[in-house]
């Protein structure tokens, strides 16, 4: 195994360069954790606004679980029993790095920049403004409508009537 982030170390958090997004282990229940990306600052609608989650359906234990970059270019989430709870299913003979970008996209890439895997290719139900394209993804009609309604609500919230000034 190469580098890893541990569920037990609360300081094992990736923060985007602009500090808007964080990634790490998030408690989702009693002794149940998921590796997730969230807005660093709490928002009015949620104390932790999660934008992406690796193991939503298979949380890991609060002890000994970790997210690791393997020597063969894969990113794996291992639980306390050493079972794989989630994997990026990638491979590379060249060294890799994990980077949380300013737009909230978690990217596994080779050191020279070739992207092997990115969270934006696996969207969840939270709208992130920079997430423009979603290649090879099937979205249900209800999920698409929810996202559309959230987007329209956000647009309407920020519109200023004609003839009015902000401030």
TrEMBL record:
SUPFAM superfamilies hit by this protein: alpha-D-mannose-specific plant lectins (SSF51110)
Domain (Bulb-type lectin) ranges: 1-121
InterPro entries: Bulb-type_lectin_dom, Bulb-type_lectin_dom_sf
Record CDD domains: B_lectin
Pfam families per UniProt: B_lectin
Record SMART domains: B_lectin (SM00108)
Protein keywords: Disulfide bond, Glycoprotein, Membrane, Signal, Transmembrane, Transmembrane helix
Transmembrane segments: 139-160
Domain of life: Eukaryota
Name of the protein in question: Bulb-type lectin domain-containing protein
